[in-house]
Amino acid sequence: MTLQWTAVALFLYAEILINIFLCFPCISAQRWRLVFGWRIWSWLSPYWNKFFFAMIMALIVLFVDAVREVQKYSGPEPMQEATVNPNLYDHVHMKLFRAQRNLYICGFSLFLWLIMRRVVTLLTQVAVALETSSGLQIQMEKALKTAEKQQEENQVLRNALVEEEKYQSAAQQLVKLDGEKLQDQLKAAEAAVKKSQAEVEAMRSQTKGLAQEYDRLLKEHHQLQKLHCVENKKDE
């Protein structure tokens, strides 16, 4: 295996290991986001896209070369030469096997390179979505607590309003009872006033009768005195 294909094979093994680590279920997306947030990645970020596309271009070139090698050794001419010269048969098949091996190595390297970038992007998006969902859950819990608190306050206000209505109804009943009592007292007072007025009228009429009787008696007294005086004069 030449140096370039050895490097591609090592690169493929590294990609396999990295993808296996990225797919570990015991490592959460938040931890991977913390790893991706290291300062070293921010330093390498200006060169990352250039390196990514450069690797794609290199792998595509090697893939095309591997395809060309496979077509070269799987064509009819090498097979005819291998059948004509038996010593070349093993050599042609060895070359074809190496070309196919290089094709698979390069193809899988290119495929895993794209998959690894996609997995990193998805892990970052999942971590952001989880953080957003946790923030939304916290906000929802706060909103629920606020709603429950407001509901409790509304219940307290409703109870206070019910109590106030009961108090107002009781006060209205008391006022009504007091009004009825006052009306009864007013009627009793009016009856007492009428009774006292009747008594005063009776006393006035009785006083008037007494005055008339007194005047009559006084007149009789004067008449008796006059008669007594006349009799006394006669006796003298």
TrEMBL record:
It is a multi-pass membrane protein. Residues 180-236 form the Bap31/Bap29 cytoplasmic coiled-coil domain. GO terms for cellular component: endoplasmic reticulum membrane. The keyword Glycoprotein does not apply. Its main location: endoplasmic reticulum. The keyword Cytoplasm does not apply. Keywords: Apoptosis, Coiled coil, Endoplasmic reticulum, ER-Golgi transport, Membrane, Protein transport, Receptor, Transmembrane, Transmembrane helix, Transport. Residues 1-132 form the BAP29/BAP31 transmembrane domain. Residues 133-220 form a coiled coil. It holds the Pfam family Bap31_Bap29_C. It is found in: Endoplasmic reticulum membrane. One of its GO terms (biological process) is endoplasmic reticulum to Golgi vesicle-mediated transport. The chain crosses the membrane at residues 7-27, 47-67, 103-130. PANTHER family: B-CELL RECEPTOR-ASSOCIATED PROTEIN 29, BCR-ASSOCIATED PROTEIN, BAP. May play a role in anterograde transport of membrane proteins from the endoplasmic reticulum to the Golgi. Belongs to the BCAP29/BCAP31 family. This is Endoplasmic reticulum transmembrane protein. It comes from Nothobranchius furzeri.
